[in-house]
Write a structure and sequence with these properties.
Radius of gyration: 24 Å
CATH class of the domain at 50-183: Alpha Beta
CATH topology of the domain at 50-183: Double Stranded RNA Binding Domain
Oligomer: single chain
Low-confidence stretches: 7-20, 35-42, 187-193
Shape: elongated
CATH architecture of the domain at 50-183: 2-Layer Sandwich
Structural class: alpha+beta
Mean pLDDT: 81
Number of strands: 4
Distance between the termini: 92 Å
Length: 193
C-alpha cells in the first residue's frame, strides 16, 4: 500500500512541477507577446508613415511555381487583381521609367508554394513596398529598402488555387488603406512658407 501511495505522491509532485513550468512558460509568452505587440505597433506606424508623399507604385509579381500555374493560377491573374484594387483606391500606377523619379516605389508580390502528393498546396503570400531610402549615417547614399510588408500563409487544394487571388486582393487593400492614411489631409502637415 505504501509503495502505491509513494508513487502517487511522486506523480503529484511531477504534475505540480510540470504545471509550474507550464505556467512560467505561459507567463513568459504573454509578456513576450505584449512587448512585441508594442514593437509591432511602432513598426506598423513607421511602415504607414513611410508611404507619406508616395506618388504611386509599379506592380511586380514574382513568377509562380509551375505546379500552381498548371493548376490554374497565373501571374497575370494576380497582376490584374492588384491593379484593379490599387486603381479603385486611387493609387497611381507607375511604369518602370517612372521609378527613376522621386516619389515612386515598387509594390512587389510573391507566392511561394509546395504541392503535396494529395494535391494540397502549402502557400506563403508576401507583399512589400520597395522604395529608395537614404542612410542615416550618410543621406547622400541611397539604397532600395523594404518599407512596408504584409504576408499570410495557408493551405489550398489544387482545384481552388485561384483563391490565392483573395489573399493578394486583401493585401492590396491593406496597402491602399495604409497609403490613404499616410496621405490623408489630416496626416499631412501644411507647408510653411
Amino acid at each position: 500500500m505504501e509503495t502505491g501511495t509513494g508513487v502517487v505522491s511522486v506523480e503529484v509532485k511531477r504534475m505540480k512541477h510540470s504545471g509550474a513550468r507550464l505556467c512560467t512558460v505561459a507567463i513568459a509568452v504573454v509578456i513576450g507577446v505584449l512587448l512585441s505587440a508594442n514593437v509591432w505597433a511602432a513598426r506598423l506606424d513607421m511602415e504607414v508613415q513611410s508611404l507619406k508623399g508616395l506618388e504611386g507604385v509599379h506592380v511586380v509579381v514574382e513568377s509562380l511555381d509551375s505546379d500552381i500555374t498548371h493548376d490554374g493560377l497565373t501571374t497575370d491573374d494576380l497582376q490584374k487583381t492588384i491593379v484593379q484594387h490599387l486603381t479603385t483606391a486611387g493609387i497611381k500606377l507607375l511604369s518602370v521609367d517612372d521609378l527613376s523619379k522621386s516619389g515612386g516605389a515598387i509594390f512587389y508580390v510573391s507566392v511561394s508554394s509546395v504541392k503535396s502528393k494529395l494535391g494540397v498546396y502549402a502557400c506563403s503570400v508576401h507583399a512589400e513596398v520597395i522604395q529608395a531610402a537614404a542612410l542615416t549615417r550618410n543621406p547622400d547614399i541611397l539604397t532600395a529598402a523594404t518599407t512596408w510588408t504584409s504576408g499570410t500563409v495557408g493551405i489550398v487544394g489544387e482545384t481552388n488555387v485561384k483563391q490565392i487571388n483573395e489573399a493578394v486582393a486583401a493585401m492590396a487593400d491593406e496597402f491602399a488603406r495604409d497609403y490613404q492614411t499616410a496621405n490623408s489631409k489630416a496626416t499631412i502637415k501644411p507647408k510653411v512658407a
